[in-house]
Write a structure and sequence with these properties.
Blueprint lengths: L2 H17 L12 H4 L7 H5 L3 E5 L11 E8 L11 E8 L4 E7 L4 E8 L2 E7 L11 E5 L2 E5 L4 E4 L4 E4 L3 E7 L6 E8 L7 E3 L28
Antiparallel strand pairs: 1-2, 2-3, 3-12, 4-11, 4-13, 5-10, 5-12, 6-9, 6-11, 7-8
Length: 226
């Protein structure tokens, strides 16, 4: 991705957050220059990958398959210094964009439509080896439990949420004509390095063409504390 495209995606999410009156922690507005004097007292942000994240999954088609998001809080299953057992993210899905099919080996999460358009989820069960199954999927949506056919559309309107358990393949997109969506995620600790299982092998962070100055550093770009 071009850095200019990453900058625009971050600005677009900031605008949607402003429109929907969702405030971010102060560190989300730091520039690359601001980060230069942030000491070890901010290592929780560095170590747990809090902050901005833009991905095209290595496909180079961000407008079709990609996400821009902010990790607001997170623990770390690999570092006993961090005791949190939970994570929270806020993200934006553009109309026409899809988050590709994947599940988590360990993470359970609630996905919440925080405002804007409507979200369409498609769900599949997986076996222990990660194979996608064509069996009915049990759904937990805002306190209601029901069953849907594998791969059928599950609609989330603003304010609605869906609970996703480990080994539940899911992809999501925006219902055409409803506009960009602000999506929240509340979950167990997030571990993108080890806990994501994509149906098709995909990358994680984009290769960046530096055609502009970073508007915000991404969560894998912070300088080490001195």
């Amino acid at each position: 991705m071009k850095r200019s495209g990453i900058n625009k995606a971050i600005m677009d999410l900031e605008k949607l957050l402003q429109d929907l009156s969702f405030a971010l922690p102060g560190f989300c507005s730091w520039t690359a220059e601001d980060w230069q004097d942030k000491g070890v007292e901010y290592n929780e942000i560095r170590d747990n990958m809090l902050g901005w994240d833009v991905t095209d999954y290595g496909l180079g088609e961000f407008e079709k398959q990609g996400l821009v998001l902010v990790t607001l809080r997170n623990g770390n299953i690999n570092n006993p210094a961090y005791k949190k057992t939970y994570s929270e993210k806020i993200l934006m899905v553009y109309e026409g964009q899809t988050a590709p099919l994947h599940f988590h080996w360990n993470k359970m999460e609630d996905i919440i439509n925080r405002g804007g358009g409507n979200v369409i989820f498609r769900l599949f069960n997986a076996d222990e080896d990660g194979n996608k199954l064509n069996t009915d999927v049990e759904i937990y949506k805002d306190g209601c439990r029901f069953t849907v056919c594998a791969g059928s559309d599950v609609l989330l309107m603003p304010g609605e949420s869906l609970t996703l358990y480990p080994y539940c393949y899911h992809e999501f997109t925006v219902q055409p004509g409803t506009g960009s969506v602000l999506v929240g995620e509340v979950s167990r600790v997030n571990d993108d390095n080890n806990d994501n299982r994509f149906y098709e092998p995909l990358g994680r962070f984009p290769e960046i063409e530096e055609d502009a100055k970073p508007y915000r550093l991404l969560c894998n770009e912070y300088p080490a504390a001195e």
